[in-house]
């Protein structure tokens, strides 16, 4: 399945500046959300992200979990490394 996202050009430019690989970042975020909601298992996350091991999948999920906690503590999106204009 292929997904296409439509983002206004000015926002796409800002987002592109804030992420090394915007498509991968979006895919990882979707996988993390699906895992959190028990829609996908760790093995399914591994397959979705085309990773070699479930350890790598767990690492991706752990990074997303730590980002969520950073935002919950009120440190905002700047703490996530986003450099785009707000």
Provide an overview of this structure.
With 86 residues, the protein is an all-alpha fold. The protein has a domain at 21-72. The protein is built from 4 helices and no strands. Helix 2 (22-36) crosses helix 4 (54-72) and helix 3 packs across helix 4 (54-72). The radius of gyration is 14 Å and the shape is elongated.
Helix content percent band: 55-70%
Label the overall shape.
elongated
Number of helices: 4
Helix/strand-derived class? mainly alpha
Biggest pleated-sheet summary: none
Question: What is the H/E order?
Answer: HHHH
Low-confidence stretches: none
Cα-to-Cα separation, first versus last residue? 32 Å
Topology:
Elements lengths: L8 H10 L3 H15 L5 H7 L5 H19 L14
Helix pairs in contact: 2-4, 3-4
Which descriptors apply to this entry?
59% helix, 86 residues, mainly alpha, elongated
Task: State the gist of this model.
With 86 residues, this protein is mostly helical. It contains four helices and no strands.
